[in-house]
Specification:
The complex is a heterotrimer.
Chain A: H1 18-53, H2 83-110, H3 114-145, E1 148-149, E2 158-159, H4 162-193, H5 205-230
Helix pairs in contact in A: 1-4, 1-5, 2-3, 2-5, 3-4, 4-5
Chain B: H1 26-42, H2 44-47, H3 55-75, H4 79-86, H5 92-98, H6 115-143, H7 154-175, H8 179-183, H9 185-189, H10 197-219, H11 233-236, H12 240-268, H13 281-312, H14 326-360, H15 367-381, H16 399-408, H17 410-424, H18 433-456, H19 458-464, H20 468-498, H21 504-530, H22 545-575
Helix pairs in contact in B: 1-3, 3-10, 3-12, 6-7, 6-10, 6-22, 7-10, 7-14, 10-12, 12-13, 13-14, 13-15, 14-15, 14-17, 14-20, 15-17, 18-20, 18-21, 20-21, 21-22
Chain C: H1 11-36, H2 43-76, H3 95-124, E1 132-139, E2 142-146, H4 148-153, E3 159-160, E4 163-166, E5 171-177, E6 182-186, E7 191-195, E8 201-205, E9 211-217, E10 229-235, H5 237-246
Parallel strand pairs in C: 1-5, 4-10
Antiparallel strand pairs in C: 1-2, 2-3, 5-8, 6-7, 6-9, 9-10
Classes of the chains: A mainly alpha, B mainly alpha, C alpha+beta.
The complex binds copper (II) ion (2 copies).
One copper (II) ion binds near residues 338, 341, 384, 387 and 388 of chain B.
Chain lengths: ~230, ~625, ~260
């Protein structure tokens, strides 16, 4: 590739074809999803590792540190988070993903205008908000049932069991994802209402890529719910 | 900063008008970052119960997060998502402004999307961080000059040690992939910029956002747990651990963004005819390193998140009292930690192989084997993490399998040597400074590699683990090999960014100081380790005195060599000998565009008909 | 561009450099290693030293080969003219050389692995007469050793801050920590394992030479990590029993070490 092999290619201007840009963005989204998959894998690994190791039998029962000396060293409490509630949250997330997925597909097939997509995106965003609220309730339920008082009399000092800790990690990560989904949903809604998501050219592709991510979050939520409800005690 | 790419120097600076966003720069980033940090520190006083023992931790965590978000806001990183959300899409003029059009040198202080600006910013940032880590190394070695020296107290010593480690890891991750993966790689592909220019700026400024809390650690009591921050001591140590952890999570965001961008650029932005089997080897190395980073770094973020939660939210991931275990940290850390070694090494190898072909005036030897070697290293590196845990007591039955995977890595690593040696073989060796650093790399990497084999063997590791032998081993890899590669790359590509040569004589002086310094420091350190000196000892028994004194003298020598190169870079950037666009008569694309490289690189995109290694071949002989 | 085909390779001088470097490498491996490494007082340490020697001897010709090419190249192939050197004779690939290189490195790796697994097995199967358990507890920043055997023999607990074990008998260590992770290491015995809070890790060793040896902490454990050093005393059976009897009764075993 010496200098004379660089040939001038007249047809190639500074502006790239939409499909080229779209392909690049699609790969970008997929790579971010890969990063996120590894993140979730590390959370699930943590959950299963702590369950498997069960150091000092402390996965769910807290052995030490009850302020009542008579209970010292006795299993104090056992508590599994409600699997039903867990699956409810997951169902809401899956529903939001379904709205985005089928809504987008349907509209694209019909080549309809941007107005109706605005509604779809807003509904999906709203479902993400609902799921976030439910996740906060779930996190608070860990807070109410999981902590055990430490040796000190200070009621502010508590520690979660390994199970409670792993649940906090998984639910916390899920909450962050849902906030991102809500941001994306409402962003698409606003953009669609301004005519920035339409069937022509590139403008539609953002909606499609958001859809990939949305479906991945729903899938991750199903995996998490399955692992935590099948393997806990 | 004294960059000389002034092509876009304009008659009327475009900074006037254009509103708030166009006024943002590094300075406003710092200001908003500090505001964010202060808000983060004081707001919790209203929301949390300040009776808890974790309150100080909660405040520092939120403060560090406040810094990062404030800095992002102040530099302009959040403008893109914000505008997207509201449907205020950027105009072409906005994009050109972000790319630094008509802003002269000011664009180096801004959220600039031009990959060449980002490359230069990365170069300076890497040098700053290497400098900070190097100063800490000198302080550590000074403290170790005699057995009971108390140049600094043990708490400060441990903080220096931990910060030195982490600063060097971060700066070496960006030392080659940052400057050259951004400046050179897109041009090598025949692209006008990276795939996602704004994410490119984000990755650079996010490293800055991470560096500040990392350095802050030193001033709020430091940490006592080494760069590996093993649990549970990481839970016990002072509040510096919080800023340290937030810094790491922030850095992981940067590497992830950079990894996506690199892979995407190479996979989708290549010009016509630039098939994967014609891709320059450095671009291949960037691709493999970027992909590996994308796999490895999320584990680090997860691990640090758990550390923060354990410290400030009452969880027990690592606390054996309520079901946690430090082995969880160790697994998570090394799942990241070993691949990360190759995230550091592979781009440096790629750069050195480019140097090998240009300065031997020969094609790269066995191009496909070279790619296979790097890919093999990357693939195996994700299966070897527990070789760092042979003596922790975790899963002794897995020792054999991990010994197998680790020793298998010596096969693809051997391929790297074969390719380097095969390229040099019967070449017309043009012994300019980049080539000298390559020779130094080969000599040092042999020692680094062979000593790694001892450590992969469990019966030997049972005595070597945790000793100065290990420290000497990975310094032969990181200093003797990667840093030599990084500096060789600077000597090689500096004419492209500045239009000037680095001074040859200073380059040679720098090399010999560094090369001799590395042998003196780390050969003596091998002996300290063989004799039984554990690593991370602030004071040591008298039997280790001689070798430690020698190591300290050697370390000063390395530093002297580095300072000569630093002076060389500063002086040559201002007044080095002009180089022209292609001083080394190389055939990769970055040398075939003008210097300084214009915005968007190519007037017309080139069409590629062969790989860039046609030295001594008839043009077009190999299609 | 003009071709420059003048760069020749002559085998003889290269072989001489290689042979000399290899010989130096092997000499250092055999003579230097035992001198540099801690003196051995157990099978494990013996195996470690032997392995370092064997690996060094195996690595010597490889490293010497690379260095020989570098030296030869710098002496013979260096371009001494002005300006850019002309292109050299291109060499794109050499399937035989690549296959041979990969084949040899695969063979060497196989050898390393087989050697390593055999050495590991011999380390793991260490056994000696009169196995005795010692509970090792690390805490910031000291070691303590408890002797359950004292409860059988003397009906009280014995706890000490130095390790005393009888020579040529098997010592089994149960290692744990009460605070953070420490690393229990007796260099001369070639054994090392982390002391993890809440978990017991184990080691077995048969010391084969009486004497005083160092014990060092090898996992960074905070402020006084470098001062977490104590001694191991390997003595005869008789001396051990005498020593044990001289020890005062200690109140109770530290509970964490038996938590699992
Ligand atoms: Cu490793
Ligand atoms: Cu210790």
């Amino acid at each position: 590739m010496s200098s004379d092999t660089i040939e001038h290619e007249a047809s190639h201007g500074h502006h790239e074809a939409p499909e080229v840009v779209e392909g690049r963005q699609r790969l970008g989204i997929w790579l971010f999803i890969v990063g996120d998959v590894i993140m979730l894998a590390s959370f699930i690994f943590t959950y299963l590792y702590l369950r498997g190791t069960n150091t000092g039998n402390g996965w769910m029962t807290y052995l030490q540190g009850d302020t009542n000396a008579a209970n010292y060293g006795q299993p104090v409490h056992e508590k599994v988070l409600s699997a039903g509630f867990n699956w409810t949250i997951t169902a809401v997330i899956v529903a939001s993903a379904a709205v985005v997925w089928f809504g987008e597909k349907h509209l694209r097939a019909q080549q309809k205008g941007a107005g109706s997509f605005s509604l779809i995106a807003a509904v999906a965003g709203l479902l993400a908000i609902v799921a976030s609220a439910l996740t906060v309730i779930q996190l608070r339920s860990i807070d109410e049932h999981m902590p055990y008082h430490l040796l000190s009399q200070n009621v502010h000092e508590f520690t979660y069991t390994a199970y409670g800790s792993a649940e906090i990690l998984l639910n916390g990560s899920s909450l962050l994802h849902l906030i991102v989904l809500a941001f994306l949903g409402f962003g698409l809604a606003i953009r669609a209402s301004k005519g920035l998501v339409s069937s022509e050219g590139l403008k539609w592709s953002q909606a499609r890529f958001v859809r990939f991510f949305w479906v991945w979050v729903a899938l991750g939520s199903v995996i998490t719910a399955a692992v935590t409800s099948l393997i806990n005690k | 900063m004294t960059a000389t790419i002034d092509l876009q120097k304009s008659h009327s600076p475009a900074t006037n008008g254009g509103g708030f966003l166009r006024r943002l720069n590094f300075g406003t980033g710092i200001i908003f970052g500090i505001i964010g940090a202060l808000l983060g520190y004081f707001l919790p006083h209203h929301f949390f119960d300040n009776q808890g023992s974790a309150f100080a931790d909660q405040c520092t965590v939120i403060s560090a997060v406040g810094w990062v978000i404030g800095f992002w806001f102040g530099i302009g990183a959040l403008a893109g998502p914000f505008k997207w959300f509201l449907g205020w899409d950027q105009t072409h003029a906005d994009e050109m402004y972000l790319a630094g059009k008509d802003q002269g040198k000011k664009r180096y202080w801004k959220y600039c999307t031009d990959h060449k600006v980002v490359g230069v910013q990365y170069l300076v940032l890497a040098m700053v961080l290497l400098g900070a880590g190097g100063i800490l190394a000198m302080l550590i070695r000074t403290d170790l000059i005699s057995p009971g020296s108390h140049f600094v107290n043990q708490q400060v010593y441990n903080s220096f040690l931990s910060l030195h480690g982490m600063l060097m890891i971060i700066s070496l991750i960006i030392a080659v992939a940052g400057p050259w993966g951004n400046f050179v790689m897109p041009i090598q592909c025949g692209a006008r910029d990276m795939a996602f220019p704004r994410l490119n700026a984000l990755s650079l400024w996010t490293v800055v956002a991470a560096a500040v809390p990392l350095l802050t650690t030193l001033f709020i009591g430091g940490i006592q747990d080494g760069w590996t921050t093993y649990a549970p001591i990481s839970i016990q140590t002072g509040i510096g651990m919080n800023t340290f952890a937030i810094a790491i999570i922030t850095f992981v965001i940067s590497t992830t963004v950079a990894g996506v961008n690199t892979v995407c650029t190479i996979m989708t932005m290549r010009t016509t005819g630039m098939s994967l089997d014609r891709l320059p080897i450095f671009t291949w190395a960037s691709l493999i390193g970027g992909a590996l980073g994308l796999y490895a770094m999320p584990f680090f973020a997860t691990a640090m998140t758990m550390t923060i939660l354990d410290r400030s939210a009452g969880t027990s991931f690592f606390s054996a009292d309520s079901g946690g275990t430090g082995w969880l940290w160790e697994n998570m850390f090394w799942l990241m930690g070993h691949p990360e070694v190759y995230v550091i090494l592979i781009p440096a190898v790629g750069a050195l192989l480019e140097i090998a072909t240009v300065f031997s005036r020969k094609p790269l030897f066995s191009y496909k084997t070279a790619i296979g070697g790097m890919a093999g290293i990357a693939g195996l590196s994700i299966l070897v993490w527990a070789h760092h845990m042979f003596t922790t007591g975790w899963a002794p039955q897995l020792g054999g399998p991990f010994m197998l995977t680790t020793e298998l890595i010596s096969i693809p690593t051997g391929i790297i040597f074969l390719v380097a040696v095969g390229t040099i073989w019967r070449g017309n060796l043009w012994m300019k400074t980049p080539m000298i650093w390559l020779m130094g790399f080969i000599a040092n990497f042999i020692i680094g590699g062979v000593t790694g084999i001892y450590l992969s063997d469990i019966p030997v590791d049972n005595t070597m683990h945790g000793t100065m032998f290990v420290v000497a081993h990975f310094h032969y890899v990181f200093v003797g090999s990667v840093l030599f590669g990084a500096i060789g790359a600077v000597y090689f590509w500096f004419p492209k960014i500045s239009g000037r040569f680095l001074d040859e004589k200073m380059g040679r002086i720098s090399f010999w100081l560094a090369f001799i310094g590395v042998q003196v420091t780390f050969l003596a350190m091998f002996v300290s380790g063989l004799r039984g000196m554990p690593r991370r000892y602030a004071s040591y028994q008298a039997i280790f005195e001689h070798t430690n004194v020698i190591s300290t003298i050697g370390a000063y020598t390395i530093m002297a060599g580095m300072l000569v190169s630093l002076a060389n870079i500063i002086l040559s950037w201002r007044s080095g000998e002009p180089s022209g666009p292609n001083p080394w008569h190389s055939k990769t694309l970055e040398w075939l565009v003008p210097t300084p490289v214009p915005l968007e690189n190519f007037e017309v995109l080139p069409v590629i008909e062969s790989d860039p290694y046609t030295y001594g071949e008839k043009e077009g002989a190999r299609a | 561009m003009t071709k420059n085909n003048s760069n020749k390779f002559s085998l003889k001088p290269f072989l001489v450099i290689w042979a000399v470097l290899t010989a130096i490498g092997i000499w250092i491996s055999i003579k230097g290693t035992p001198w540099l490494m801690e003196k051995s007082a157990s099978h494990q340490m013996h195996m470690a030293i032997l392995t370092v020697i064997v690996f060094s001897v195996a690595a010597a010709p490889v490293a010497a080969g690379i260095y020989a090419v570098q030296i030869y190249a710098l002496a013979k192939w260096r371009y001494k003219g002005e300006g850019v050197p002309p292109d050299a004779e291109p060499l794109r690939n050499n399937v035989k050389a690549v296959s041979a290189w990969i084949g040899v490195s695969a063979l060497l790796t196989t050898f390393l692995l087989i050697w390593g697994l055999a050495a590991l097995a011999s380390d793991d199967n260490v056994s000696g007469p009169n196995p005795m358990t010692v509970n090792v507890t690390g805490q910031q920043w000291m070691w303590s050793f408890q002797y359950p055997i004292a409860e059988t023999l003397l009906h009280h607990n014995v706890e000490s801050n130095i390790l005393v074990i009888p020579v040529n008998n098997q010592a089994n260590f149960n290692v744990t920590s009460v605070d953070v992770t420490h690393g229990f290491w007796v260099p001369s015995l070639g054994v090392k394992v982390d002391a993890n809070p809440g978990t017991v890790t184990t080691l077995s060793v048969v010391p084969n030479k009486p004497g005083w040896y160092d014990i060092r902490c090898v996992e960074l454990c905070g402020l006084n990590h470098s001062a977490m050093i104590t001694k191991a005393h390997v003595v005869s059976d008789k001396e051990f029993l005498t020593w044990l009897k001289e020890q005062p009764a200690s109140p109770a075993a530290i509970t964490t070490s038996v938590k699992n």
